[in-house]
Every structure is written in structure tokens, then in C-alpha cells.
Write a structure and sequence with these properties.
Radius of gyration: 30 Å
CATH superfamily: Aldolase class I
Helix content: 40-55%
Low-confidence stretches: none
Number of domains: 1
Strand order of the largest sheet: 1-2-5
């Protein structure tokens, strides 16, 4: 047995219009669900010692800032980087390797970086593309003379990374 629905004038037009509307709604809902599923990446966020301390940094200041990033809740909302800027240099050894200031950072950088990492943060280091650091030019930091990466880029990269 076959049923034939009576077609009124313009019923095909109405059916096509309803089909187009349904397709559009489906596409909109699909795009909406896809857009909701995408979580944007946050920008790289952190703290840099230069902005407040210039070359006047040391081991306890950097640790204190890492502690503050965690205790204040900044780390939990995406602030992950502790950037140790100019002020840790102490010239270069005879082989060209970078010296770390022995008074400001008596244990060197490795224990400090380990401390930062233990807090769930990431450590960053400043260097200069030239022969000297900005601190040696603008803050009379003698340890920055010859402390730049110029002619030492691979050697310093191996130290930092």
C-alpha cells in the first residue's frame, strides 16, 4: 500500500526552504561546538629580574620571586617563567666559558634552576648578542664586560641549555 501526500502549491519550495534551514542550523551548531572545544594557548608569561632589580640580583632575590609567583597564585594562572637577567655574570674563564658571580650566586646556577623547577616553574637566562652585557654599559657591572655571547654563542648555549 502506498500513501501519497497531497502536495499543495509551493510545497516543494517550502520543503527546500526547511531543508536549507536545517542544514544551516546543523552547520552553525557544528561550528559552535568546534569553537567551544578549542582552548587557546596563553602567551608566555613570567617575571624578569631586570624590570625591578637591574644588575642587583642574587640567589635569594631570585628564589624569593619564584616563591612569590607560586604563593600569590600567579603560577596557577599561567605565569611560568623566572627570567634571570643581567647581573649574574662575572666575566669569562681562560677557556672562554662564562663565569657566574661567586658572591651573588655562591652555589652557581644549577641549584638555583633546580629550585625554580621544583616549584613547577621554568628558568630563563639573559644574554647579549654583543661582546658585553647591558649591565656593563649602563650599570657599571664589570662582570658583564666580555660576558655577551659574541664569539661564544655555542659555548654559552651549551651552558644554558
Amino acid at each position: 500500500m502506498t500513501f501519497i501526500l497531497p502536495l499543495k502549491k509551493n510545497s516543494i519550495y517550502v520543503l527546500r526552504k526547511q531543508l536549507k534551514t536545517a542544514c544551516c542550523l546543523f552547520m552553525i551548531s557544528t561550528v559552535s561546538m568546534t569553537a567551544q572545544a578549542v582552548v587557546p594557548k596563553s602567551p608566555l608569561m613570567g617575571w624578569a629580574s631586570w624590570n625591578n632589580f637591574f644588575v642587583g640580583i642574587n640567589d635569594s632575590i631570585i628564589k624569593g620571586q619564584a616563591d612569590a609567583m607560586v604563593s600569590s597564585g600567579l603560577a596557577s594562572v599561567g605565569y611560568k617563567y623566572v627570567n634571570i637577567d643581567d647581573g649574574f655574570f662575572y666575566g669569562r674563564n681562560e677557556d672562554g666559558s662564562l663565569k657566574i658571580h661567586p658572591v651573588k650566586f655562591p652555589n652557581g646556577m644549577k641549584p638555583l634552576v633546580d629550585y625554580i623547577h621544583a616549584k613547577g616553574l621554568k628558568a630563563g637566562f639573559y644574554s647579549d648578542a654583543g661582546a658585553n652585557t647591558c649591565g656593563s654599559q649602563y650599570n657599571n657591572q664589570t662582570g658583564g664586560i666580555g660576558g655577551g655571547m659574541f664569539n661564544h654563542d655555542q659555548q654559552d648555549a651549551d651552558l644554558f641549555f
